[in-house]
Amino acid sequence: MEENKKELIRKAAIKVMAEMGFYNTKASRIADEAGIAVGTIYNYFNSKEDILEYIFAVELEKRMVYLEQVKNVEADFWEKLEIFLRKHFNEIKDNPDTGKILVSEKEFPRKSGSKAIGDYLYAIPDKLDYLLTDALKNGEVKECNPEITAAIIFGAIQGVVEKAIKNDNLTLLDSAPEELLKLLKRGLNI
Amino acid sequence: MEENKKELIRKAAIKVMAEMGFYNTKASRIADEAGIAVGTIYNYFNSKEDILEYIFAVELEKRMVYLEQVKNVEADFWEKLEIFLRKHFNEIKDNPDTGKILVSEKEFPRKSGSKAIGDYLYAIPDKLDYLLTDALKNGEVKECNPEITAAIIFGAIQGVVEKAIKNDNLTLLDSAPEELLKLLKRGLNI
DNA sequence: ATATTATGAATGAATCATCATTCACCAAGA
DNA sequence: TCTTGGTGAATGATGATTCATTCATAATAT
Fold it and tell me: Apex CA A128: angle with CA A124 and CA A129, to 5°?
């Protein structure tokens, strides 16, 4: 079981799912894209849904690492947020197909009990909430409801990604962090 | 062809699609929910997809009316935005199932050329962009890129709705406008 | 008023295409 | 030889959509 084959399938699936959406994605098309046989997919994944789960799990893991790194950095909340934003957006610039999936595929009861999408949609706002709560304690940001504010920030991030992808204008992801941070900073700074 | 029957189907479909998602929604389940026969659905809609299209079209129409009303109101940008936010959130409080659909179902090539979802995701940010550009001209808001900022605001709105629904806490939609407006105002006010 | 006919909404069993998944069989390397 | 991984045709389930039929009501005729 070479790990490369699994990676090959993941990448092919990202390409196809970004184009067609999960439900319109045929296993056969993923196989074509990966240059392998349909059956091979099932040597590495138990189901089509597992592939999507895996895609989300990989992306979530990256973000969790970013957020963990950022947490331990010697910097104020705003610098932390900026670092995270840049990493997140750069990741998406490098692979817009993944970005499309991250903003498009929503949590729904699929066949097996899907989990990774829910995790993604929960864990990131939750970590933002944590950072924000911390910043509040340190008096780094203005009084606010950190839970709602985290939801607002996460939503805004998703909104920017959606816009960039819809307009097929990835350079937006370069200027967006600045615009977003400028707004948030003035909005929340003490 | 009574109009009521179409409405009955729309409402039943909203309930089922909010619970299961579009692709997991069976026509037979919609029929059950509406207390009619499967075939009847097809006297009013050409396809399952048409039902979803119709759901989005109805909701978009409402928002367009709100935004049109707001545009002509004698008030500054912030009051306009607040009025719209309250109307939008109240609409969702009254029917959270619809809200779930509005934040969950994304634009993808379905069988026929789906249009309404794309319209919804495009038209609202576009109108916000318009209002914002106007406000900029009048010096009502701080210098900003209205296109990106509109995407940020729309994303933030969607984020709040998602949060409220995920947490099954609709009262969030009462306090959220205030929180969101506070942030945006300070962030964008001159 | 009563009978006759037309209309079209409603029905749901039957159809039919669509894939995800399986698995019997290969091929290559150890 | 044996094991591991690859293959893709065949399977089987699923579920959207169709359509022949029913039936209530309306329109028209007697």
Answer: 115
Nucleic strand C under 7 Å from the C-beta of B37: yes
Provide the residue range defining the domain that includes A184.
Answer: 53-188
The amino acid sitting at B161 is: V
Dump pLDDT digits (tens) for A111-156: 656 789 999 999 999 999 999 999 999 999 999 999 999 999 999 9
Please judge whether B108 and A186 are an interchain contact, meaning their C-beta atoms are less than 8 angstroms apart: no
User: A169 to each of A78, A119, A159, B5, B146, how far by Cα in Å?
Assistant: 26, 28, 14, 43, 16
Radius of gyration over every alpha carbon of chain B, rounded to an integer in angstroms:
18
Contacts of B183 in chain A (CB under 8 A): 144, 149, 152, 184, 187-188
Q: Give CA–CA dist B39/B43, Å, rounded.
A: 7
CA–CA dist B166, A67 (Å, integer): 22
Backbone angles phi, psi at B189, to 5 degrees: -65, 150
**Residue B106 · residue B114 · CB < 8 Å:** no
CATH number for position A14: 1.10.10.60
